[in-house]
Amino acid sequence: MAAEKNPDGVRSLTIGEVARRSGVPISTLHFYESKGLIASTRNAGNQRRFPSLVLRSIAIIKVAQRTGIPLEEIKRAMGRYPPNSKLTAAQWGEMSSAWRDNLNERIRTLEALRDSLDNCIGCGCLSLNDCPLRNPSDTLAQEGPGPRILERASQRI
Ligand code: FES
């Protein structure tokens, strides 16, 4: 089958080609599209067609996901640029810098968790007075949702 081109003359890919070349399952591509992370057009036969630049977007999504960046953050970052556009080095630099800050914050939180667990490993006391993980009667819920002890610890760093 001859390669299709979109109205701009750019080669377009079927969803199967995108899956094969990106290593991402078709179901995941559908999910990314439903979340607005990638976009397709429809050909005359109402089949999805993606510009070849979608492979670059998918690579960015995969790298970001591997570092634990939430999909909503990935979408927000990619949404600053036109869909299916080729990011410039400066744009990629902006995006990766923001993710670096996010990654550093999560590293600080994990270090705080590790430090809290250092006292607990092999202990098992769950002491109301001494254990940093103990939360009697869920009193910390009054401070708000989430892991309050760990968030407190990461704010000290
Ligand atoms: S279990 Fe003993 S200090 Fe946490």
From TrEMBL:
InterPro entries assigned? DNA-bd_dom_put_sf, MerR-type_HTH_dom, MerR_fam, Redox-sen_tscrpt-act_SoxR, Tscrpt_reg_MerR_DNA-bd
This protein's name: Redox-sensitive transcriptional activator SoxR
Q: Which residues form the HTH merR-type domain?
A: 12-80
Keyword Manganese attributed? no
Ranges where the record places region Disordered: 137-157
NCBIfam families from the entry?
SoxR
Q: Name one GO biological process term.
A: response to oxidative stress
The keyword Secreted is assigned to this record: no
State the UniProt keywords alphabetically.
2Fe-2S, DNA-binding, Iron, Iron-sulfur, Metal-binding, Transcription, Transcription regulation
Q: What Gene Ontology molecular function terms does this protein carry?
A: 2 iron, 2 sulfur cluster binding; DNA binding; DNA-binding transcription factor activity; metal ion binding
Originating organism: Pseudomonas proteolytica
